[in-house]
Amino acid sequence: MSKQVTIDPKLDFAIERFIDAPTRLVWEALTKPEHLKEWYMPKVWGRVSRAQLDLRPGGIISIDIAVTDGPEVPNVGCVLEVVPMERLVWTSMLFPDYRPAVFDDIPITAIMTMEPVGTGTRYVFTALHRDEADLEKNKTSGFYEGTEIALDQFVEHVMGMK
After folding, report:
1. How far is CA 54 from CA 31, 57, 61, 150, in A?
2. Burial degree of 44 (CB within 10 A; 0-12, 13-18, 19+)
3. H or E stretch covering 160
4. DSSP 156
5. Is residue 66 within 8 Å of residue 59, measured between CB atoms?
6. Contact criterion met (CB below 8 Å) for 147 and 125
7. How do the pLDDT tens digits run along the chain, 162 residues long?
8. Burial per residue of 121-150, b for 16 or more beta-carbon CB atoms within 10 angstroms, e otherwise
9. Are the C-beta atoms of residues 51 and 33 closer than 8 Å to each other?
10. Contact present, 149 and 123 (Cβ < 8 Å)
11. How big is the chain by its Cα radius of gyration, in Å?
């Protein structure tokens, strides 16, 4: 996948954070399941019950969540690109090993980039959608709001790792 992805504001959103921590800690918090479990799900909404990440193209990303006392909901996708301490790309439109996914959710491709800035890290999460309707559904469903909350938790978690 090209590092140059065109972001279309009609289809996509990006959320940026500056994290006052070295990129190696940001990468560790992003890619190790024990860290994902701590920040991925907005804590006021629920929890991550299980996380798995195989950091290779075609590898699995699996994050099961539970909202309050509800049942655990699996979220499985396929890793598309891994550039350690720079870039991680995955999609929910494929299962591991590039198998076509079957789902009833809104699919996304997620691109997470990071770059050193001074003693900290510029981190950007981007969600690509199929069409404007999917983006609108994700904004109104709480996905966008939840992502912002999760990124705030991510920053807090990384700061606690220092």
Report:
1. 9, 9, 7, 21
2. exposed
3. helix 143-161
4. H
5. no
6. yes
7. 556 788 999 999 999 999 999 999 999 999 999 999 999 999 999 999 999 999 999 999 999 999 877 889 999 999 999 999 999 999 999 999 999 998 678 999 999 999 999 999 999 999 999 999 999 999 999 999 999 999 999 999 999 999
8. bbbbbbbbbeeeebbeebeeeebeebbebb
9. yes
10. no
11. 15
The predicted model scores a pTM of 0.94
Residues 6+ apart with CB under 8 A from 106: 129, 134, 137, 138, 141, 143
Contact 39, 157 (CB under 8 A): yes
Q: Which long-range contacts (CB under 8 A, 24 or more apart) does 115-122 make?
A: 115/23, 115/86, 116/22, 116/23, 117/18, 119/20, 119/22, 120/18, 120/19, 120/20, 120/21, 120/22, 121/18, 121/19, 121/21, 121/22, 121/23, 121/26, 122/16, 122/17, 122/18
14, 24, 35: which is closest to 156 by C-alpha?
A: 35
* 136 contacts 13 by C-beta, under 8 angstroms: no
Amino acid at 146: G
Smallest CA-to-CA distance from 54 within 25, 31, 86, 28 is with 31
Joined tokens for residue 158:
């990384």
